[in-house]
Amino acid sequence: MASIRTEILINARPGDVWAAVRDFGAVHERLVPGFVVDAYLDDDARVVTFFNGAVARELLIDVDDDARRLVWSVVESPLNYRHHNASVQVFSDAEERTRFVWIADMLPNDIAPQVRELQERAMSVVKAVAESRRDDPSDHETVGR
Questions:
Q1: Distance CA 11, CA 94 (A)
Q2: For residue 143, is pLDDT > 90?
Q3: CATH number, domain at 50?
Q4: What is the band of 144 on the pLDDT scale with cuts at 50, 70, 90?
Q5: How are strands ordered across the β-sheet holding 55-64?
Q6: 107: Cβ–Cβ under 8 A, 6 or more apart, which residues?
Q7: What percent of the chain has pLDDT over 70?
């Protein structure tokens, strides 16, 4: 099984980054706009449309607010995964800085290079968006989000 781990430091509050991550149905608005161009919730899954037109169904596995960790599995995708499980976790690196870790495990192994490229592209969007919203009080962590 292929396993991809990417990590990035973000100059934004960990609570604000986590608020965007945990908003599972708004990934296209709050976390990776432009990389994901549309998303909607469908029962315990989200259906996402990517910048290249690909559509995937992602099953929500867990949202752990204490650990700031979200886990999902792609259950339908043009990549034809036999298995996919991923997690994103937000760590405090400092009061105003976040360590963002994304781990994806998948089969078949031969799609890993393509997935790594997409994951790295998405990570740069996460960083740019979070840092651009750093001083926007409307996007800060709120109770009930």
A1: 9
A2: no
A3: 3.30.530.20
A4: very low
A5: 2-10, 97-107, 83-94, 69-76, 55-64, 45-50, 36-42
A6: 1, 2, 81, 82, 83, 84
A7: 92
Whether 145 is in a domain gets the answer no
pTM above 0.70, yes or no: yes
Q: Which pLDDT score is estimated for 107? A: 96
Q: Which of 103, 92, 111 is nearest to 4 (CA)?
A: 103
Q: Please report, as a single letter, which amino acid is at residue 119.
A: Q
The angle subtended at Cα 13 by Cα 63 and Cα 56, nearest 5°, is: 40
Of 119, 121, 139, 124, the residue nearest 17 (C-alpha): 139
CA distance 135 to 113: 35
Asked, for residue 11, whether it belongs to a domain, the answer is yes
Provide the residue range defining the domain that includes 128.
2-136
